[in-house]
Amino acid sequence: MASTVSDSRKHHNKATLGILMMMGGLALYVLSDAFLKQLMGTYSVPQTTFLRALTRLIPLLIAVLVQGGAREIFHTEHPQRHLVRLAVNLAYTYCFMWAFSRASLTTIYTLAYTSSFFMILLSAVILKERVVLEKWIAMGIGMVGVMVAMRPSSGVLETAGLIVLLGTFLGSLNKILMRRLAATEHSLAIAIYPNIMMILVTFPLLLGMWPWQSVSWHDWGFFAVVGAITAAGQYLIAHSLRFAQGSTLASMDYSTFFWVVALDYLWWDRAPESHKLVGAAVIVGSNLYILYRSKKEQRAAA
Known about the structure:
Blueprint: H1 15-39, H2 45-66, H3 70-74, H4 79-100, H5 105-112, H6 115-125, H7 133-150, H8 159-181, H9 187-207, H10 217-243, H11 246-249, H12 256-266, H13 274-301
Helix pairs in contact: 1-10, 1-12, 2-4, 2-9, 2-10, 4-8, 4-9, 5-8, 6-8, 7-13, 9-10
């Protein structure tokens, strides 16, 4: 194995490409969450988690064959870092899967938008990235826009809400650990390992505490769609962290607001209220300013 790091295993200074990849990956996750929310009315959290991991592992393994084979993809220089990240990812996934079975999408996404603050903080502490004051201010303004748009109720901080906050922190830490792995590891490996871990940990639960429930052909189709779109989402998010800093990508979580509104309108026939449109304008403004700051920093570094 050559000692030099190939282009598929190192960072690149292309913030715009990284942002577009992150936004695309997040959009796919919103769509999959809508499918999961519906499926969880029938299946347990462990079974839904297991089937999602299994169905999205299949297209990822096919991609391994296309992009160089197992030897090229799975070679790692930092197995310990993978193990730490896998433990964090496991806890983060179960927090959100449990929340999806208990709380509304609005509650979950409202609280999940706090990830931007966790992301910036962890980027500064773990990755030693310099975060300028203007980015902190823009993130705060974006958060205000989220609160205006979503109008969380006074009772939002219940058990499910606290689980979402914990999951959001772990999810932000997961992205930071992915960013560190992206310096030396292949994006497909970063996307595949969590699914293998999820299957290995969840399968014993289905043999004991949560017995397997038969899946109809109709629902197998739903799980197949969820697997395909989350596999693509995982890969895009893992690859985005190769092209942009964690602090730059932090605010991109806000972009899911538009997909939530679109799903409300197209799937459940709920048109956006005026306060959501006002919040959307604030969110777009903060994201555009962060993109402007990032491009300015790129030019200065060049």
